[in-house]
Amino acid sequence: MRSDDGGSSWTALPVPAAVLALATHPERPGRIIAGLASGGIAFSNDEGRTWEARSHDLPEGEIAAVTVAAGQPEMIYAAVRGDGLWKSEDAGRSWSLAMDRPWLDEVERDLLTLASVDLATGMGGIWIYAGTEMGLTRVPDCFCRWQDVQPGNAMDALVSGDAPPSEAPLPAGQPIHALASAPSAPETLYAALPSGVWTSRDGGVVWSHLADGFASAVAVHPRNPDHIVAALDGGLKQSRDGGDTWSALAAI
């Protein structure tokens, strides 16, 4: 669905199959990338009016999550259910395996959502954050290994493995349905969980609760990190003050 009036009204867009995930990039305003339930990736370069399959080399399996690298609009990441994290350096024309699924609590876990976050502590400045059924994890773009989000210098923590845990992490044991990084303020993150919408202002180390309800999706404005929209209890709500107050958008 698409709204051109801030969510007051909606129109259906043609899609090649059921869509599980969407991604956009501020430097490519007409481009939408869709992860499909039937497997594969579809690209639209005209705001969703027409679509093109770009799934060459991708394994079979649902595409549970997609994201575009911060600052690199041609670099696309896709989470293939039952397989791992795949990347394309040429806007989906070819794909290669970037990373296996994270090993959490003695089991390899599927990635439910992805966000590319431009932080100085990443190799080259970029981290891939991922939500799983067990919580939050991340990997730098060197793809050395998945790690918990920890305070202090993240690359030192990656090497030593003995950094202290976060004092205020996301609730343990809850699946993370969606993650959003604010492009204009990369350390600001939002997460959608069964317990509601959460935010972090320091790259995911300390989290605070913004809204109650079952949250299944969250998005943030590319230029205003305090303007967010979330799917809460089956409806859409927006906040223009970083989650202090919320108002309902028209039903789809």
TrEMBL record:
It comes from the Bacteria. SUPFAM superfamilies: Oligoxyloglucan reducing end-specific cellobiohydrolase (SSF110296). GO terms for biological process: xyloglucan metabolic process. InterPro entries: WD40/YVTN_repeat-like_dom_sf (IPR015943), Xyloglucanase_GH74 (IPR052025). PANTHER family: EXO-ALPHA-SIALIDASE (PTHR43739:SF5), XYLOGLUCANASE (EUROFUNG) (PTHR43739). This is Pyridine nucleotide-disulfide oxidoreductase. It comes from Oceanibaculum pacificum. The lineage of its organism: Bacteria, Pseudomonadati, Pseudomonadota, Alphaproteobacteria, Rhodospirillales.
